[in-house]
Fold this sequence. Notes:
It is a single chain. The protein contains nine helices and 19 strands. It is of the alpha+beta class. The strands form four sheets. Strands 12-13-14-15-16-17-18-19 form an eight-stranded antiparallel β-sheet, with no helix packed on it. A seven-stranded antiparallel β-sheet has the order 2-1-11-10-9-8-7, sandwiched between helices.
Amino acid sequence: xxxxxxxxxxxxxxxxxxxxxxxxxxxxxxxxxxxxxxxxxxxxxxxxxxxxxxxxxxxxxxxxxxxxxxxxxxxxxxxxxxxxxxxxxxxxxxxxxxxxxxxxxxxxxxxxxxxxxxxxxxxxxxxxxxxxxxxxxxxxxxxxxxxxxxxxxxxxxxxxxxxxxxxxxxxxxxxxxxxxxxxxxxxxxxxxxxxxxxxxxxxxxxxxxxxxxxxxxxxxxxxxxxxxxxxxxxxxxxxxxxxxxxxxxxxxxxxxxxxxxxxxxxxxxxxxxxxxxxxxxxxxxxxxxxxxxxxxxxxxxxxxxxxxxxxxxxxxxxxxxxxxxxxxxxxxxxxxxxxxxxxxxxxxxxxxxxxxxxxxxxxxxxxxxxxxxxxxxxxxxxxxxxxxxxxxxxxxxxxxxxxxxxxxxxxxxxxxxxxxxxxxxxxxxxxxxxxxxxxxxxxxxxxxxxxxxxxxxxxxx
Length: 461
């Protein structure tokens, strides 16, 4: 067992917490009958704990042992697509056919492909793609079966490995090189993910199937899936995935800014099911568990299972990797690693610090505002950000991001994407706020204020 709790420079987890985490991974490995399992925890951007159980090549695995990560590959691929969007090379509302010649799926938007709402079939044609060589499907046309469009685009959430194969081809078309080479240069190298590769690099685990009624193993193939690789080909380690998890919580301007990463975590679609406990953003799965909203992804390939989950609100993430074909309890292990840290060592709030060089014109905007007779408070934050919240009751609260033209864009709830404008009088005095046509004034229905429809001249009575 390798424990890397000291990697944060002595500011790791308490011994009791580390013991509880190790016990949970040990339970998961034993009860799941997996040849090996590695668990890891990230907190505030640092890998603070990792441990392995079982056997890989005659030794216990650790945070540097490679496992195949399956569909977590999709989140890496989604980062590349969002980089193309941020560069202006495509729009999320663009149809795939605007950028890539494909025999099917051309009418689906980039956002629909990223969120599994394209309506495309779950799998490509031919034998089980995860266990067969990609040479069976050498071209894009070879991916499609007789009925590739299973639902109208945009209608329902229908998980599609085929859709991410098309997104991989899109990246290759717009970048002019293999999608993994783009990933290595634009994401892996800047984030320091040196052990995330297209093919296994020692030390790595082998994939196994475990007999359902006996404690015996059967080797699983590790095929090169070719065109389908963007849906699940990558190999990685707990240490690398921990760094990737930190990026998914906070962003990194060398790859994607925090605002874009937050956009990826915003649900676009709910999966089908009676409980509706999860959702899907832009290449990111979302689940609700014990009051937490977790963002990340799961992964399976023959012989391997992988889990990566983040709790951005707490700044905690977990990774679980195992080398067997099916382990339904892996998600519970990963979630329990997060809740264990959150419960045993609750985080401290960030220290309050005063703003530096606050703009007097922005300070003038702070304080009470009224939508009709309903009071709201406007606050100024760092970087010219604004937040609006009702006073003493429920209402439409929102954060607003500053724009270069002097307006702000809403980030939450009803006002997400709406524009906040400061409207001034002829002598440059502040008249009112306009948020998507909703008018906020300094007084509740003051005669002469810019309230649509006017204010009764008789006043309050």
